[in-house]
Write a structure and sequence with these properties.
Radius of gyration: 18 Å
Shape: globular
Distance between the termini: 43 Å
Number of helices: 7
Order of helices and strands: HEEHEHEHEHEHEH
Structural class: alpha/beta
Strand order of the largest sheet: 4-3-5-6-7
Length: about 190
């Protein structure tokens, strides 16, 4: 049912695999395959974060704009597991409202290219940057494969990632974006 569809989409977003074994009359077993960890990775999150090379994502404020609730929720969970603070919204209007309530501008924006009601991710990013009065680093994500849409997205100044985005690739792009942003500061927005 719906629960399995949610699990399948979440597993797919996180780059894992789901396995089904079923025997008629006996039942079904679902398993999620996760990478095997080692004892060193079992320490506290702050210790793991301090050993990671590159820019720390700890306390970085990231705005996620995606009209698909499963994608948005999955992205929020993943970013929070990396130490980010997340503003996750479904549209440009919700993004502007969340930005007005935020204590500071985001360090990065992750925006779906095609949103509901013909809303375009490029225009949403530009509106958010204008509201922040800053060139906030941003990336577009898209599951769209139409050639004209891909040309439009690639012609923008924003990096384009294709759904499903692999977590390692997203982390690398986000680290790069955050390296372009200034360090987190407490300042008002709007």
């Amino acid at each position: 049912g719906l629960g399995l569809a949610i699990v399948e989409r979440s597993v797919h977003l996180l780059g894992h695999r789901i396995v089904l074994r079923s025997t008629p009359g006996r039942g079904s077993m679902f398993a999620i395959e996760l990478p095997l960890g080692d004892i060193q990775s079992a320490d506290a999150p702050e210790q793991r974060a301090s050993r990671r090379p590159g820019v720390s994502l700890e306390d970085r404020l990231v705005m996620v704009v995606d009209d698909e609730v499963l994608v948005r929720d999955g992205m929020q969970g993943l970013l929070e597991s990396w130490g980010c603070r997340v503003l996750a919204v479904a549209s440009g209007e919700e993004a502007l409202a969340a930005l007005a309530r935020a204590e500071r501008a985001p360090d990065a924006i992750i925006c779906d290219y095609r949103l509901r009601d013909e809303e375009n991710g490029i225009a949403v990013i530009q509106r958010l940057q204008s509201a922040c009065a800053a060139d906030v680093p941003a990336v577009l994500i898209s599951g769209d494969t139409a050639p004209e849409r891909l040309r439009e997205a690639k012609a923008s100044v924003y990096r384009l990632l294709h759904k499903p985005v692999q977590p390692a690739k997203l982390r690398a792009v986000l680290s790069h974006l955050c390296s372009l942003a200034s360090k987190p500061q407490a300042s008002g927005v709007g």
